[in-house]
Amino acid sequence: MNTLRDTLTHENQLLPDGRNLSYVVAGAQFGDPLVVHHGTPGSRLFAALFSEAAKEKGMKLVVPDRPGYGRSSPPPADWLWWDWQQDLSVLMQQESIERASVLGFSGGGPYALAASTSEWASRIALVSSAIPPARNGLTKLSGIPFALRLLFWVSGLLVKIRGPESLVSQYTAESVSNTVARRVAIDFQEGLRQNGKAVARENRSLARASFDPDELTVPLLAVHGTEDSNTPIGPVRTFVSRTAGEMVSTESDHLGTLLERMPEILEWLQLD
Fold first, then answer.
1. Please, what are the domains in the chain?
2. Gap between the Cα atoms of 148 and 145, Å rounded
């Protein structure tokens, strides 16, 4: 399973405060840049799920580990989800990217919203996204010490015992290939490389956070499944209705929406 790491281009960026920001570059080397935000938990290896599709569409994926996930350093104690855009600005300079689109999947959606307020952002797609303030099972458990860490430790153990399908079934009821299942499992396990503290920290933060729709100044596309039990569609519909964005609902679930709609989402995200 670990051979997947060898098929992606891994990079590291030293941030001004001494932290490390780890990321993957995939897709078309000279394509339209797209900054992708993995789920919760997740990692830069999320890129493998659609690197081939991005290459076909002529898009360059830049997929960082958020602080505390994968190989990225944990954030300082006073770091907030809104500070994420400052980390990304350093990354954009490193990659010599002046303009890029933004995609956020699941728990990565709020961080994609923060990124979309940056001067370099051109448009944003939210896929199966949580909307701050998030109200779901993970944000409720995040207030209980060690609860989320225990939950994901058990999930990781089940992957080792029963295989990747045991994890995939938590995100979709649809049938996926063995390759996709392995990639989902590897992304999940890499996201918990350090521990589960990042998951708990993010969910505590997003339970209290908010995003003013008036802050959104770039085109928005939200794609969400009506059968999504991980991040229900209601909050997304409400959020989009307060913007000039476009809402697309599909008769699918959490991961199924991403896998089914990825080609058209990538096409919409291409720079003008």
1. 2-269 (3.40.50.1820)
2. 8
